[in-house]
Each structure stands twice: as C-alpha cells, then as structure tokens.
Design goal:
Blueprint: H1 3-20, H2 29-49, H3 52-59, H4 64-67, H5 69-91, H6 94-110, H7 112-118, H8 121-148, H9 155-163, H10 166-182, H11 190-199, H12 201-234, H13 250-258, H14 261-282, H15 284-294, H16 299-327, H17 333-353, H18 357-370, H19 373-381, H20 389-398, H21 402-414, E1 418-419, E2 422-423, H22 424-427, H23 430-450, H24 462-466
C-alpha cells in the first residue's frame, strides 16, 4: 500500500471517529434545534401545572387528595396515549407523530376557554387529559428521534443535551405560575373561601370566576404558540432515514422487549423516577407552606415563598443537567445514575426527619440529583433497539404514569394530619424515598449486568477509551 493511500485511509478513519464522537452532526443541526424546542414546550406545560394542584384545591375548596386529580389526568394522558402513539409513529413517522402531538397539545390548552366559562372542576380535567395526550405523542416521538440523529455512541449524551432545555421551559412555566397566576389570584385562604361560600355564595362565585380566568390565560396563550410551532415543523424538512420499517409486528416486538431486562427494568425505574420528580415538585408547596405557617407566616405569603423555592429547585435541576451531560463523557451512565439516586435518597430521608428550613433546603437539593435521571434511564433502556425503539419508547412514556398515581398516595398521607412526632407532609416523603431505592438498583444493575462493554474500573465506555 502506498504512503498516499495509507494517509488517505488514516484520514478517513480519523474523520469517521470524529463524527462518531460528535454529539450533534452538522446535517442534523436544524432538525435537532426544532425537536429540542419541543422539550421546552412540554417542560412549560408540566411545571406550570404542578402548582395548579394547590390552586385548584383553593378555588374549588378541596383536599390535597382531590387536588391531585389534576396530576392524575395530566400524567394519565401520557399513559393512555403512549401505545397508540407508538403504533401511529411506527406506521407513519416521527415527524407525523410530532405534528399530531402539537395539535392535541394546542386543542387541550384552548379548551381552557370553555372550561372557564363552565366554571366546574371536571371540564378542566378533560382539558388537561387531551393536552397530555398530545404531550405523550411528542415525548414518544421526540426522545427516540433525538437518539437517532447521529452516532449511537453519543446517543445518551445527545438526549441529555436536548433534555437540558426541558427545565428551561419548566422554569418559564414556574415563573408564569408564580407571577401571572398565583400572585394575581385572590389571596383568600381555603378556609376563608369556605366561609364566603357558606355566607355569600354570589360573592364566592365572582371570586371563583375571576381566579379561573387568571389561571386559564397562560394556557390559552401557549396553545396559540404551539399552533405556530406546528406550522413551522410542518413546512420544514426533517430526517426520514429512520422511517424504513412501517410494519407494526407488535407480537414479535413485545417478545423481544420482554426478553430484554435492561428495557423492562428501565420502564420500572422510569416509573419510580417520574413519580419521585412530580412528588418532590408538587408537594414542595405543601411542605414549605406547612413549615412557614408553623412559623407564624400568613398562608398567602407562605405560598409565594414556596413558589420561589420551587423555582430555585428547577434552576438547580437545569444547571445540574448540563454538568451531568459533561460528566457522561467520563463516567458511565449507570454509575452516575446510581450515585445521584443515592444522593437523592439521603436528601429525602433528611426531608422526612428535619422540621426546619434545612429540611426545605434538602428538598430543593433533590432536584440536582434528579436532573440526569429521565434521559439517562431512557437512553440506557433503548440502547441498541433500532426499529423497536419506536414501540419501546411507548413503555417508557407509559411509565410517566408514576406521576399520576404515586402523588395520590403521598397526598392521602398528607391528608392524615400527623403521623407520630412528624407532620404528615414530612412523613409522606417516604414514597419518593422508596422510588430512589428502585433507581439505585437499576443503576447498579446497569453497571454490573446490563452493560458489560463499560470499563468497570473507570466507568468509561471502551469505544471512547480506545478512540
């Protein structure tokens, strides 16, 4: 072989390795940006909604358990639509799934208009359910779509990077909830509203209608924004290389997934993670409000302070996501997942035991441990799936049902009042603690059983070490 041929061969090999290690390849940059923007859109929907559990409970004068019907319908939509979404995407394409998801998202958001006019709780639950059916389509499409946009070696890092924009949307959602909903709603407490309902039903009805209009306005605006995004993606060229196999083949696909412990254990780990995330972000309001009112602070002021702690938690989550994405260059996903879940467990135990501001700080700090979990579990579980990823993604999206059912268990504990020497809101965090134990086990099994290609000594992928 001549020196020229050898040099050319070495240059081609170097170029191939460079592309293989590139998180975002140039030809995928524009579609990557468009799809990544969707992560912010559903982050907004998720985290403008978490504070609404308490807001709806005040407006309609319900307990914490009934208030979590918002979460049940919100995350129930994910669960109900995940399999139909996977079948639709497998039959058509990721792009078509995204367009349908955006259409349902906009429809659910705009249904807040008639729900407000009706003035009852249950029409809002229907609106949330339709909205999240759209989010289910978006997540079932966008997550594996991002994984497919480049080298498999950088797929988990790429998804972590895309997911880093999800908390940015979440921050905007929290900011809007605090400044444009909670701050503008009537400051009357639940007890004061009950007295008003008993003594002057007409005045209570006026207050309720005003609060519902305030609550609905951001959803209507985001519905219009989503319609614009739908039009942009509809008229953009998107990669189609992954749409080759349109046959459903559900039976053989399910058989392969059932034989893959890394996948089905990942679905369970994702169920635990989403449940822990929603519980920590939803009940930070109850935890902080209970803490501050016990210190003599008025309930409305305590709720405003709680919102600020929730935003602080999301900021920590956002910064931690970028840090963890960087660390994945040097540490295996399973090892980092296990370490952070252990940190989350320790902080949750402190949240349970402490009855002062330090406990609240620990609750905020849990977000730093959770930041890596969703995309990393997702990437580990779908590794090497190829065409099966379209259907397998549905199981991981269905696992978001953890955010539907687990908060109701925690809320039922909160409604007990107190448990021994602990306030019930503190004791209720035993449910997130159990979730973190499940995630620790999955991270441990990923390192020691599911991913033998990782260097056990350093946790660095062999392919990366050799390149």
């Amino acid at each position: 072989m001549s020196n020229t041929t050898l040099e050319s061969s070495l240059e081609e090999e170097s170029s191939r390795r460079s592309l293989a290690n590139k998180v975002i390849e140039p030809q995928f940059l524009f579609p990557f940006i468009l799809v990544t923007s969707l992560f912010a859109l559903w982050g907004f929907a998720n985290d403008i909604t978490n504070p609404m559990v308490k807001a709806f409970a005040k407006i309609f004068i319900t307990g914490a358990t009934e208030g979590t019907l918002v979460q049940m319908c919100f995350y129930g939509g994910y669960c109900a639509m995940a399999i139909p979404a996977a079948m639709f995407i497998r039959k058509f394409s990721y792009k078509t799934g995204i367009l349908l998801g955006l259409g349902l998202y906009a429809t659910g958001a705009l249904l807040f208009i008639p729900s407000t006019n009706i003035g009852e709780f249950y029409p809002f639950l229907i609106s949330y359910f339709i909205l999240t059916c759209g989010l289910s389509f978006l997540e079932t499409s966008a997550n594996p779509y991002i994984l497919s946009m480049g080298s498999p070696q950088t797929a988990t890092r790429r998804l972590n990077f895309a997911q880093a924009f999800n908390p940015m949307g979440s921050l905007v959602g929290m900011f809007v909830a605090m400044n444009f909903i909670q701050a503008r709603m009537d400051p009357a407490s639940t007890e004061e509203r009950q007295v008003l309902l008993d003594t002057n039903p007409d005045a209570y009805s006026v207050m309720k209608s005003s609060d519902l209009e305030i609550l609905s306005s951001p959803y209507i605006i985001i519905g219009l924004v989503v319609i614009v995004m739908l039009l942009v993606i509809a008229f953009s060229n998107m990669p189609k290389h992954h749409d080759r196999n349109t046959k459903l083949n559900i039976g053989p696909t399910l058989k392969r997934l059932a034989a893959n412990p890394r996948y089905y254990e990942g679905v369970l780990a994702q169920f635990f993670y989403v449940g822990a995330q929603i519980m920590c972000w939803t009940f930070i309001f109850h935890y902080a409000t209970n803490l501050f009112t016990s210190q003599g602070i008025a309930e409305s002021t305590a709720e405003t302070m709680a919102s600020k702690y929730n935003i602080a938690a999301m900021m920590i989550f956002c910064v931690s996501r970028f840090i963890c994405t960087f660390l994945l260059k040097y540490v295996s996903p399973g090892a980092l997942l296990k370490s952070l879940a252990l940190g989350g467990l320790i902080l949750t135990v402190l949240v349970i035991l402490l009855q002062n501001n330090l406990g609240l700080y620990c609750l905020v700090g849990i977000s730093g441990c959770m930041s890596l979990m969703f995309p990393t579990i997702y990437g580990i579980a779908l590794k090497g799936m190829q065409d099966d990823a379209k259907f397998a993604a549905a199981g991981l999206i269905m696992s978001i049902a953890g955010g539907s059912f687990l908060p109701m268990i925690q809320a039922s504990i909160i409604d007990l009042g107190s448990i021994g020497p602990l306030p019930s809101v503190n004791a209720s965090f035993v449910i997130p603690a159990i979730c973190f134990v499940g995630i620790i086990i999955y991270g441990h099994r990923t390192v020691h059983k599911h991913d033998p290609e990782y260097d056990k000594a350093g946790g660095i992928p062999v392919a990366a070490r050799e390149s």
